[in-house]
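I'm stuck. Please check this protein.
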Amino acid sequence: MSKLFPSSPGRRRALQGTAAGAVVVGLLLWWLLPLGESPPSGTIAFSTGTPRGVYQEYGERLRNALGKDMPGLKVKLLDSAGSQENVARVATGRAGFAFAAADAVETYALRHRAEAGRLRGVARLYDDYVQLVVARDSNIQSVTDLKHKRVATGLPDSGVRLIANRVLRAADIDPEKDITPVADGIDTGPAHLAQGRIDAFFWSGGLPTKGIRELTLKSDVRFIPIGGALVAKLHAATPSAQYYRAANMPESAYPQVQHGSVVPTIAVSNLLITRTDMDPRLTEWVTRTVIKSRDDIGTHVHSAQLVDLRTAIYTDPLPLQEGARRYYRSVKP
């Protein structure tokens, strides 16, 4: 039998390379292609956060990504005070999905054990960093200097309020008596600091947070370091503080203010959460979209770049929801 093509070693290597490339492309397409025969449809409520915060911007862009993958799914975004309200909404059925910091999840679980038993993790996303901001000419140099000052500690039921009050107590400051507490979030805190209506404000969010970035471009501000000694005191004070760790805010977060220097602070992981009774197939699709949309969303929301398939499964203190577990098993090497 005559051969249509010569069988040279070079040609064999080329054909083998082509076949290997096809296998790689096939596996990549299998990972990215929709799961099942048709995408889920219906309506879900997704609790995000306050205007100008990372939760809300991330939620808006994730809704767009979900719409592309599941055209029949309507995602209703709910503004919220932040993590504490988000956890309560999911646990009580007022939202199907939400962003929440791990310390807020654990705090809710300790206070509402029955309702918290319904909570499940979908993905670990990125870390929040505590950001304590003051005017550059302020005489505040440390957390202990906040005593007798007007301090924005976040909205009620926010993750900021939870962690700010704990940081203050660790510095031996009573957040109700030793400061003038102001219920400003990221939507109002930066403007009020620039106007001199407050002396400092706490924020806990991904880096960089839009509201703070804009403040650093318009006003002369600086960050107050939160040292490791306070982290140790936090860990000793409450069980849910185990999710706090000492960290450095990288110099690239707000270069106009940091001038090449890191800022010692506290970090806590952020989770995407849902409930046990959420449709596992829908949760599987949502999980896939979160992972798949990382790079696209990350061009607009820097924190989204940190979503990593290898660490997304670590949703402590919550076990994975069944649909999320299916997804991670399907892509396990």
About this structure: The longest helix spans residues 9-32. Residues 1-31 have pLDDT under 50 and may be disordered.
